[in-house]
Amino acid sequence: MEPTQPREAFVSGFSKFGFKKINVSSTMDESAEQFVADSARFLFDVQLSYIPQERLVTLPGVHGVVVNTMSMSENNNLLEDLCYFNFLEMNGLVIDTNLHPLQSLLLQEAESVGAWTIPGHEIVSATDAQWSGLISGKSYSPEEYDKFLLEKLQSSSETAAEEASSEI
Fold first, then answer.
1. What is the pTM assigned to this prediction?
2. Whole-angstrom Cα distance, residue 150 to residue 121?
3. What residues have CB less than 8 Å from 93, skipping those under 6 apart?
4. Percent of the chain with pLDDT over 90
5. Three-state SS for 63?
6. Distance between the two ends of the chain, CA-based, in angstroms?
7. Residues 124, 104: Cα–Cα separation, whole Å
8. Looking at the predicted structure, is the pLDDT value of residue 126 above 50?
9. Which member of 26, 76, 86, 95 lies 3.0 to 4.6 Å from 67 by CB, making a disulfide possible if both were Cys?
């Protein structure tokens, strides 16, 4: 996890859902350790722990949810370690907050081990539908918004691929 607002939102949200144990891992040890220390002051009923990257592949398969807030554009070993999913229990949930790529390696690997997945575009759609409704007083369907967003993302991905192939 990198120091981003999605990280804070997910930790806070899962604690409000009743999760009592949350582990955080990152390529930035100091930043992540500080985040855990700062957050522990406000999350009284939650055991919040920092797991160094090198320990990820040795964790037991008892974790029910994995949330990735790290950019897929970063070339790092943490995402590779996450893809082992040795720490994820059977039928666990993997959430990837990235919009690109639409079907990330993390989500592909999660599906290959039988995990449930939620891609970034579904997170964005649900969030946008919620705040748009609050601002406008109208009701917006996250599913309809997601359909629209997915079309736009696929179109922009195809355009980018065409531009890249024409430059070669």
1. 0.85
2. 7
3. 64, 65, 66, 115, 116, 117, 118
4. 64
5. strand
6. 34
7. 16
8. yes
9. 95
